[in-house]
Amino acid sequence: MTFHTEYLWFNTEKRREFLNITRKVEDIVAASGIREGMALVSAMHITAGVWVNDAESGLLADIDEWLERLAPYDLEGYRHHRTGEDNGDAHLKNLLVHHQVILPITGGRPDMGPWQQVYYAEFDGRRRKRVIVKVMGE
Amino acid sequence: MTFHTEYLWFNTEKRREFLNITRKVEDIVAASGIREGMALVSAMHITAGVWVNDAESGLLADIDEWLERLAPYDLEGYRHHRTGEDNGDAHLKNLLVHHQVILPITGGRPDMGPWQQVYYAEFDGRRRKRVIVKVMGE
Amino acid sequence: MTFHTEYLWFNTEKRREFLNITRKVEDIVAASGIREGMALVSAMHITAGVWVNDAESGLLADIDEWLERLAPYDLEGYRHHRTGEDNGDAHLKNLLVHHQVILPITGGRPDMGPWQQVYYAEFDGRRRKRVIVKVMGE
User: Fold this and answer.
1) Which of C45, C71, C80 sits opposite B59 (nearest CB)?
2) What is the C-alpha to C-alpha distance for residues B45 and A30, in angstroms, rounded to an integer?
3) With a cut of 50, which residues of chain B have pLDDT below it?
4) Which of A93, A137, B9, C50 is the most exposed place for a label (fewest CB within 10 A)?
5) pLDDT band (50, 70, 90) for residue A34
6) Which residues of B touch A (CB under 8 A)?
């Protein structure tokens, strides 16, 4: 059994940004040498998500607008901001999209559908944050 | 360590349909011979979900209505439709319910609560789509 | 390969309650002796969730209010209640926040960010319910 762990660091320019990390994850799976198993891709922060969806710019704008509708940025609206924070919305967006995915690995590669791409979703950026990628298998 | 991978294919008659796949997953776990481990059940599409919840027809209708309220079908409303697609809502529903679950396996069976059933949630059907089931353990 | 399984039982006083179970999960990981691998933390009920987020009381109140807005308690509003139940909202909240997380384990400990805490989210309490923690690794 092999375990291979790497960390991806991000520091986005904008508060909210969605980054396609499929290639980076594929490279880590390749580096692990694992042929059969799973790769966990998990945000190490509570104001960022990881999802699998389409790499289509219109859809990414739709997702951003939709998340803003369901969990709006609102300086006045959250009790959490009494702590001095302004990112209550980012915590809710994290809960909504989930902070992690598992990629199955078959034949040495992520076993994904043709349109499935892995995204890091930053909801409170402009500082260094990271994602753990842990590959486990044989 | 054993790895056992199967693919379930679906082609629903309706655009949206929720299918109880618990028995199929149990059969795959049994076929794997694995006594201890986990089974990943993961949609290979970005317009379908997998969840664990109740097999109760009233609730399934409630879920459908609720998803339609939070992420409505809307031909005009999504930038994604400029690509020629009409399934923007299905992408959002996928993000909302998540596209995968992990079932723990204990004593050769999925170790689930008495009411937990595994569902494939089709949000853009009437074509062949699939789910990967990867069982990993000993 | 080692597999270590424990069950956490809960019986909350209130209908909805969010419990920080990070310490309990850390203790189970320590008891497993596993240095590298993953821990699955998964609710065995369809009206409870498990999430990773902040241990901040204002935010927890924000989350409760937000979930109540997106999936409200409503005695009249759900078809599911024709079965005699009154917990339709709890099923939807479960779908929204997801019922499980995977914690990566590195060096014998959950490999989490500094603010990440594991929560059991009860949406229909005042009775005995449980969570499975299955640790898998070496």
Assistant:
1) C80
2) 23
3) none
4) B9
5) very high
6) 1, 3, 5, 40, 42-46, 70-71, 78-83, 88, 91-92, 94-96, 98-100, 102, 130, 132, 134, 136
pLDDT of residue A126: 98
Tens-place pLDDT, residues A47-103: 999 999 999 999 999 999 999 999 999 999 999 999 999 999 999 999 999 999 999
**Token pair of A122 as six digits:** 């930053």
CA-to-CA dists, residue C67 to A74, B57, C61, C92, C93, angstroms: 16, 23, 10, 9, 6
Place of tokens 């991978």: B5
Residue with tokens 């902070």: A99
For the purposes of burial, counting CB atoms within 10 Å of the CB of A64, is it exposed (0-12), middle (13-18) or buried (19 or more)? middle
When pLDDT is averaged across residues A38-49 and rounded to a whole number, the result is 98
Preferred mutation among A62, A94, A119, A134 to probe B, highest tally of B CBs within 10 A? A62
The DSSP secondary-structure symbol of B26 reads: H
Alpha-carbon torsion (A58, B48, C18, C116), positive or negative: negative
Query: pTM of the entire structure?
Result: 0.98
Residue A63 has what pLDDT? 98
Half-sphere exposure of C40 (CA within 13 A, CB side): 28
Quote the CA–CA distance of A73 and B87 in Å, as a whole number: 26
Q: Is C29 helix (H, G, I), strand (E, B) or coil?
A: helix
Domains and CATH numbers, chain A: 2-137 (2.60.120.460)
What confidence score (pLDDT) does residue C127 get?
Answer: 97
Within 13 Å of residue C30, how many CA atoms lie on the same side as its CB? 6
Tokens read off for B71: 């992420």
Cα C104 from Cα B52, distance rounded (Å): 22
Strands (E), C11-138: 17-20, 37-43, 48-53, 100-106, 109-110, 117-122, 129-137
